[in-house]
Write a structure and sequence with these properties.
By secondary structure, the protein is mainly alpha-helical. Helices cover about 70% and strands about 5% of the residues.
Length: about 375
């Protein structure tokens, strides 16, 4: 097929919104890190993020020009690859800040859990697309949860609670899109919650702790915001101060005291929204929301015009992944969600996250191109018939 045909059917509004988010993120990352005396250059993190964005854009283009429908045949291969790369962390992974989440590739560190998110969206979409709706719903639900449980547990034990939570949230969203009745979720949620409660109560008695101390502290801070203000609660307090002091227009780029004076930890990753809120205020946050809502709007549109159930489920899975991370990240910076380490899509610093998110956009573009081409064929057939 000619290149012009592909290009004519691209969703350029989606590409423009994503490009806007990536550039916006670069500006905030530079503002948050340019004055760090420990860095070799004021553009250090921006350069690394630019390399990740360039690699992600290249892979996005490859995926967009590839027929996504071919991935359906490789469901098992993709699932095995997801498990292999996640388990590889336990063998050759490098540890940082109490977690073993990264594989050092020399030039950069790869975070397999980010790749696992995209892989599981494709795997679950392929499985659900083969199941007739209304038949054996309980079996379909349990099998789907079984698919995601192993990678989710492996990611959780790294420990990476945030990414494990994303996998679960995406799975539930895709099951809803598939059409599973909500009553099944009520029964399953009650069973899982009860089992988890019993496990968490019983295992510590025999010396096994599923939750690290810092994870327990984060939950305590969420439930009791004034808990340990000089320790576990420090990040959240500084984040609220930063966002609250931004008011309508913010203090201006490079002028935010919480980030520039290093009162706010992790200000270029987990708490980058706090930097944005302090320096650009409500207006800056509104611009972020507007750009992201364009991505959501185009994602919903792609989900609706997909030429098959497989495409619709992939689009829905990608959309739920991005939405969940977006709202959880912002929610944790203002105290309405527990701190989980989930990054802000396209904005937070992180090479693996950037590449993963751009791969997801590539899938959306591939679905859009095929859906539009199918629509054109139907239109031409209708014209011939008339």
């Amino acid at each position: 097929m000619e290149l012009r045909t592909y290009l004519r059917h691209f969703d350029y509004a989606l590409l423009a919104a994503v490009a806007g988010l990536v550039i916006y993120g670069m500006v905030i990352i530079y503002s948050a890190t340019h004055a760090d005396p420990d860095l070799p250059s004021s553009f250090y993190y921006v350069k690394l993020q630019t390399v990740a964005a360039a690699l992600g854009a290249l892979l996005m283009a490859v995926i967009a020009f590839t027929d996504y429908r071919g991935l359906r045949r490789y469901r098992t291969h993709i699932y095995v690859s997801v498990l292999a790369i996640v388990m590889l962390v336990y063998i050759v992974g490098s540890a940082a800040q109490g977690s073993q989440r990264w594989i050092n590739l020399g030039v950069f560190n790869l975070q397999p859990s980010e790749m696992a998110k995209i892989g599981m969206v494709v795997v679950l979409a392929a499985y659900l697309a083969e199941r007739p709706r209304g038949e054996m719903e309980i079996r379909t639900t349990l099998t789907t949860l079984g698919y995601v449980s192993l990678p989710a547990v492996l990611v959780f034990m790294e420990p990476d609670f945030g990414s494990a939570l994303v996998l679960v949230a995406v799975t539930i969203s895709m099951l809803f899109l598939y059409g599973i009745r909500w009553t099944h979720f009520v029964v399953l949620a009650a069973a899982v919650s009860g089992s988890l409660f019993l496990v968490l109560r019983a295992l510590p008695a025999v010396g096994v702790h599923l939750l690290k101390q810092y994870q327990i502290d984060r939950l305590l801070v969420f439930l009791h915001p004034d808990h340990d203000p000089g320790g576990a609660g420090y990040n959240l307090i500084q984040s609220k101060i930063a966002i609250g002091s931004g008011t309508m227009t913010g203090k201006g780029l490079y002028q935010g005291t919480q980030a520039q004076l290093n009162f706010l930890p992790e200000h270029h990753t987990d708490f980058i929204f706090s930097v944005l809120g302090e320096e650009l205020g409500f207006i800056g946050a509104a611009i972020l929301f507007a750009l992201f809502m364009i991505v959501v709007w185009r994602g919903i549109r792609i989900m609706l015009i997909a030429d098959n159930m497989f495409g619709s489920l992939i689009a829905g899975g990608v959309l739920s992944m991005l939405l969940f991370q977006f709202f959880v990240n912002i929610g944790m910076t203002i105290g309405i969600m527990p701190i989980t380490g989930i990054t802000l899509p396209f904005i937070s610093y992180g090479g693996s996250s950037m590449v993963s998110n751009l791969l997801a956009i590539g899938l959306l573009e591939s679905i859009h191109v095929r859906g539009k081409m199918m629509g054109d064929r139907r239109y031409r057939r209708a014209q011939v018939t008339i």
